């Protein structure tokens, strides 16, 4: 393949790098201060205008200076096909069936950017992989988790395969990840048939089969269904097995948290990898505690127009003009747009606007980001 700048656009890594750089500049308010994006500057994420990257300060130890930021194959990147992983031979799973998840996780956790994006991108993806792996491994055996011995072997194989695909080898440290993340040991209920007896699975699947990023963050549907199922199986298990996992105690809290893993594993078994992964990433995106880079000033115009005795047209006009003004400040990524929508939603809620005004006014995620205008 020709090694011109054009070849970058096929590179997943390059594409991803661009996403991350844009994410980083959002965090640093750099774009808002130094670059004004005009509509004529319209660009696709895979096609950044030259010069966009100048103001960004990133430690050279992390990203060595590269005079051509769109050149993908600088020597710092591993040659993905250069070695085969060393496997234990004791993890009996067909990894080719998981190749979508392995590839996605490796690229989300690639050297050398994983440490920078651990909380927001890499670890949520690793966590999702663990759940999808549990389901793939246990599904044929009426179980939703691995036993300790299989977990040890599979954990090692997963890390080797990820590393062979270019992922950072520090994932266990970065993400506090251990083989026990594959066992969910303190959840008392692990087999599929008891799970289906105890949990209203149609309700769970209805809530989580298609998770809408904006709605889920403002008015969660899937997350409460998962928690409800997890609490149910953790306490149900306690009474059945006479264990000490009394809700509220430390053991009880661990059990609920491990049982959430079991619920995730069940969802992974019932949904396609792509759908399950998207759902899990949205759920963790809602939790990510990154501030929204937009500056929200006094929303009283919206509060007034959308409070009691409001009419829909005047409320929506006020809301749309408020959001349009925010949107012009800075380029935000989808993840930030989620944070922004959530933050503004809770701001309005505190100010007494109770209705689902995003739904009422047809506001969606892209309305919070500049892409929406282009
Ligand atoms: C990666 O390594 C393989 C085998 O060593 C080689 O054939 C291939 O050309 C390399 N790819 C790149 C992009 O350097
Ligand atoms: C593993 O899965 C792949 C893709 O689904 C399939 O082509 C292959 O035959 C499977 N291998 C084994 C040993 O089952
Ligand atoms: C693994 O489990 C631990 C608790 O045992 C948890 O703190 C951590 O977040 C989990 N890691 C991932 C990536 O899910
Ligand atoms: C399936 O369950 C049996 C009986 O519990 C166990 O011996 C076997 O190792 C399990 N298989 C896998 C792949 O976990
Ligand atoms: C499961 O939940 C649905 C609502 O989502 C309800 O209609 C149904 O009756 C429930 N089934 C059981 C067995 O509780």
TrEMBL record:
Q: Where is the At1g61900-like C-terminal domain?
A: 290-362
What sequence ranges are listed for the domain SPARK? 88-230
UniProt KW keywords: Signal
List where this protein forms a coiled coil.
none
Which GO CC annotations does the UniProt entry carry? plasma membrane
Q: Where is the signal peptide?
A: 1-32
Q: Does the keyword Secreted apply?
A: no
Determine the domain of life of the protein's source.
Eukaryota
Designated name of the protein: SPARK domain-containing protein
């Amino acid at each position: 393949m020709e090694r011109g700048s054009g070849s970058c656009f096929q590179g997943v890594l390059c594409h991803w790098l661009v996403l991350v750089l844009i994410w980083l500049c959002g965090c640093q308010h750099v774009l808002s201060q130094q670059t004004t994006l005009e509509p004529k500057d319209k660009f696709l994420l895979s096609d950044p205008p030259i010069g966009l990257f100048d103001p960004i300060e990133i430690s050279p130890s992390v990203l060595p200076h590269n005079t051509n930021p769109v050149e993908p194959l600088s020597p710092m990147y591993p040659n993905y096909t250069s070695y085969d992983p060393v496997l234990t031979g004791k993890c009996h799973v067909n990894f080719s069936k998981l190749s979508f998840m392995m590839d996605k996780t490796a690229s989300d956790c690639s050297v050398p950017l994983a440490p920078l994006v651990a909380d927001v991108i890499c670890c949520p993806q690793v966590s999702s992989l663990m759940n999808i792996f549990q389901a793939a491994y246990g599904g044929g055996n009426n179980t939703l988790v691995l036993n300790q011995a299989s977990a040890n072997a599979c954990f090692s194989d997963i890390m080797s395969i990820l590393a062979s695909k270019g992922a950072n080898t520090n994932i266990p440290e970065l993400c506090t990840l251990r083989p026990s993340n594959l066992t969910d040991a303190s959840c008392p209920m692990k087999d599929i048939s008891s799970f289906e007896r105890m949990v209203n699975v149609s309700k769970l699947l209805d809530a989580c089969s298609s998770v809408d990023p904006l709605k889920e963050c403002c008015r969660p549907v899937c997350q409460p269904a998962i928690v409800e199922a997890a609490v149910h199986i953790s306490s149900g298990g306690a009474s059945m097995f006479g264990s000490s996992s009394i809700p509220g105690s430390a053991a009880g809290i661990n059990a609920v948290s491990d049982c959430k893993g079991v619920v995730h594993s069940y969802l992974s078994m019932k949904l396609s990898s792509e759908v399950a992964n998207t759902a899990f990433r949205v759920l963790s995106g809602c939790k990510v505690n990154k501030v929204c880079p937009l500056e929200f000033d006094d929303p009283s115009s919206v509060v007034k127009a959308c409070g009691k005795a409001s009419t829909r047209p005047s409320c929506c006009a006020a809301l749309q003009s408020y959001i349009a003004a925010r949107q012009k400040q800075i380029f935000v990524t989808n993840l930030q747009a989620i944070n922004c929508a959530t933050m503004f939603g809770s701001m309005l809620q505190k100010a007494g606007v109770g209705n689902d005004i995003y739904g009422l006014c047809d506001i969606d995620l892209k309305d919070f980001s500049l892409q929406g205008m282009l």
